[in-house]
Amino acid sequence: MNIDINKLNRIVGEKNVSTDLADLYVYSSDASVHHAMPAVIIRPETTDEVQRIMRYANREKIPITPRGAGSGTSGHAVPIDGGIVLDLKRMNKILKISPEDMLVKVQPGVVDDDLNRSLQPYGLFYPPAPASSRIATIGGEIAANASGVRSVKYGATRDYVLGMKVVLANGDLINLGSNTRVHSSGYQLERLIVGSEGTLGVIVEATMRIQPVPKYRCLAVAKFDKLEDAGNAISDIISSGTNPSMLELMDSIGIVAVNNAMNLGLPEVGAIILFEADGNVKEAVDYEIKKMKSICEKHKGFGIEMSYDSTERQKLFGGRKKLFASLSKYKQGIVCTDLADDMGVPNSKIAEATKKIHEIAKKNNVIMAVYGHCGSGVIHTKIMLDSAKKSQWDDAEHVIEELYDYVHSIGGVTSAEHGIGLSKAPAWKKARPDLIPVMRAIKKALDPNNILNPHKLMDAPDDWIRATKLRYRVEL
Ligand SMILES: Cc1cc2nc3c(=O)[nH]c(=O)nc-3n(C[C@H](O)[C@H](O)[C@H](O)COP(=O)(O)OP(=O)(O)OC[C@H]3O[C@@H](n4cnc5c(N)ncnc54)[C@H](O)[C@@H]3O)c2cc1C
Q1: In the predicted structure, residue 467 carries a pLDDT above the cut 70
Q2: Paired sense of beta strands 103-106 and 246-251, if any
Q3: In ligand 1, which atom is closest to the CA atom of 453?
Q4: Which amino acid residue places its CA nearest to atom 34 of ligand 1?
């Protein structure tokens, strides 16, 4: 593949094109286990520049991988065919905040927390915020259909997309969706881009709904001796008709990990649930919180603390927010890998699934933490292993297969919010063969030269451990 660097220099300026080995190495991985070197990184600032880059790449048939913060967990932004990485972080302007229309218009590289900070003075917020909101970009969140701790009440990214400007593989710019809350004007193509993982087009602008910040928020923490009791409490809270604005689980492994990493001194019990209610009427928030508290108590929850105070709430939530990053501190000699990390299960199966995950991990000699936005059915797991040992990667493969077979057998999904990328493709393809021809036809129509993030999702290799490189040193 011959890439004309001078041509790229002329489009974005020399300082926004890099072939420096250290840069290429940084962009060769994301938060997943995968690694592949790009040939060049390019950082456009305008839609026009993105269009010119796409026209060039399409003409020369050069693979091009859009990238936000690179916080994706399944290899979405890893350029497995080499080529160009299109870093969109310079396109980071908030173009419009409209409290009248309750929407924002943003460029794709705007970081989620920055958007929320800008909305604060207006008493507004953008709810889907993933736990990675400190770094994740709105473009990356749309492309992965990210969700977060408040999605149990407020929904996922897809529920906030009104419209979008997208540059197609051939460089054409299309304007999708509307500025209105509803539209019934043909195919909802803006929805097609949600979850497309950079394979169908480059999002260069997004129009997103926003919400008023509720006047009252009350966060509570309940402890449980048994993980199963915590799982049953979560299912019961959801089916009881209460409306939590957060309902999160942490198992004993997660608790020990955050204690090790952050010295939090959390009680090392079987599990913790964090539940929150919000609203503009304090009595209504009290009612919701009390109802959830009594459901926890019915399932042997104890030591329940709660607070309306924002500093206190942040303290209570601190361990959960940094759980993922803390997991590698669980035990010396093991690392936390983003494998089989975000399945979704039906509400009634939460307790059973959490128990099963621990059983499968034990049987296969790895450790798996169980946590996440379980109120929305999202179960986060991480496979924690000795990454230097080849046998541990074999163990991981067995876990992945067994786990997804189980999840699909109970009506669950391969990924609830992180997306498919590379690592989850084999399990997802096995579960949803009916979707593959339709998705390939859509891809071919929009990107006939297969340049946009090729070999991901439905076209990802079935045997990812051997077909792609790992970013760990493994002794054979
Ligand atoms: C500590 C941690 C916690 C996390 N917690 C959560 C969580 O609670 N919920 C959740 O949903 N996820 C979570 N994630 C996963 C990740 O943060 C999300 O998937 C996020 O949406 C990725 O955003 P990004 O900007 O990093 O995108 P990247 O990782 O850079 O890219 C993700 C995908 O989007 C594509 N893409 C990026 N920008 C564009 C664009 N402008 N146009 C077209 N395609 C584009 C890329 O090609 C890639 O396929 C977490 C990750 C980490 C590391």
Answers
A1: no
A2: unpaired
A3: 47
A4: 140
